[in-house]
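Let's practice the habit of predicting before peeking. Look at the sequence and jot down your guess about where helices and strands might fall. Then scroll down.
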Amino acid sequence: MTTVFYQSVGNRLTHWDVDLAAATLTPRGSIELPSNVQYVWPHPTRKLLTVTTSDAASGNTPNPGNLHRLCALRIDANGTLSLHGEPAALPQRPIHHSLDATGRYALICYNTPSHLTVHRVNDDGTIGSLVEQPADLDLGIYAHQILMTPSNRSVVMIARGNRPESEKPEDPGALKIYAFADGRLSPLANLPVGGRGGHGYGPRHLDFHPSQPWVYVSVESQNELHMHRLDGETLSPEPLYQLRSTVGTYDISFPQAAGGIHVHPDGRAVYVSNRANATVDFNGKRVFRGGENNIAVFAIDPSTGEPRPIQHADPQSFHVRTFSIDPSGSLLVAASIAGLDVRDGETARHVPAALTVFRIADDGSLTFVRKYDVEVGDKYQWWTGFVAIA
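Done guessing? Here is the structure:
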């Protein structure tokens, strides 16, 4: 098995060679896709990637775009990518997608408005036909992630909701659970965590423990980490453990947000990115307003699943939207979406977007190794990830 690293900037997906012993990344080549990369998911054969793309603006913006695609890419023996078959048109901007365990179905969720689709993946790995879904599925507000449970018999879609704004009340969040059979979904459970109908609850992403029935959720709006128990095909209605992901405590009006979440491959720890990139005026420039940008590290109790905070590691960049852990569990790479100006005494200096490489210790803690600055221009470094290839 070979491990490679892929990085998106705008519509360009770049392949990097990985040296695990030296903790280095070396860029090798890129492929341009129909529009900006939104998410990437490897096929279980390790010979293909699926990629969703869109020319829409991110978030709750008025630009819906008009070029949304699901693509299959072939991976050659050294990690080079090439388009595999014709991309499939999608109805709107996809925010996340994944495959079922067999690689026969691609599940895609869309944020504005909240929606999902399921597409067949043909035996040769090309994108197949759309699977019709029931019209009465509860899709929540602002879908943000869609994943199969480990049994491959149910699906969790995270509906983040939206923070309150000056002239708009809060939209509630929830975990939407569906039964899954032959590509079709049916309602199974709706979990508006917190006892207030989903108000005060803005989940973003979740990840599963590799060997125990424990599910860890990054709660974006409240800057929290939750741990649920996997109960059959659904989750416990409320978390068993609930912790702050940040060092500080922030009011809902402050632009601080929990981000991605990944459990270590052997289950020793769980990691959450904390993000802030709001700006204020300083001598005619927009500079970083303040807040936390770090990777929060939580050791996992092997008998109970309880997460315990042990570190907040500095990526030396701003707004880590995605990060990933190599399959061996020895390296973590954090990716910031764009550069930012920061105040430095009476002047401002620019901190570029970056790929930050950490080594992972036996207790799960992180040690900074190096940082690769990335010139993104007017694009975003939107997705990155390690992939094991055959």
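How did you do? The chain has two domains: 33-187, 202-377.
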